[in-house]
Amino acid sequence: MYCKGCHSDGPIADQQCQARPCAIERGLESCADCDEFPCKKLGPLMASRDGMMIFCQAATASITEEEYDLCMRQFDSMPNLVRRMVEAGKLPAWVRERSGPKT
């Protein structure tokens, strides 16, 4: 599942995302378009899958597989954020080639 952008009507990676309402309020298609990106609102989304499970072990030890899958969808959208940042000139183009699947 890939997030189609904060301002789109398409699927989003995380229903609890704090950056999405902020991006919508600012009229941005994606949080990656913001001059303040990444901000503290994105902190929970910027970890790795494995790191999240390790560092949040006490809170995640009893989650179901469905809850895990729902939570992990956000990581599938990281290549989209990188793509947006490359397009905006915030990251060098070569970064996109190393960021995972293209969407």
What does this structure look like?
This protein has a domain of 70 residues. Helices cover 44% and strands 0% of the residues. It contains six helices and no strands. The longest helix has 12 residues. The protein is globular, with a radius of gyration of 14 Å. The mean pLDDT is 75.
Characteristics:
single chain, 103 residues, mainly alpha, 6 helices, 44% helix
Low-confidence blocks of residues: none
SS summary, helix count: 6
The count of DSSP E runs of length 2 or more, i.e. the number of strands, is: 0
**Shape label:** globular
> What is the rounded Rg?
14 Å
Biggest sheet layout: none
Structural class: mainly alpha
Please report the distance between the alpha carbons of the first and last residues: 10 Å
Would you summarize the structure shown here?
The protein has 103 residues and is mostly helical. The chain has a domain at 19-88. Helices cover 44% and strands 0% of the residues.
Blueprint of the fold:
Layout: H1 19-25, H2 49-55, H3 57-60, H4 65-76, H5 78-87, H6 93-97
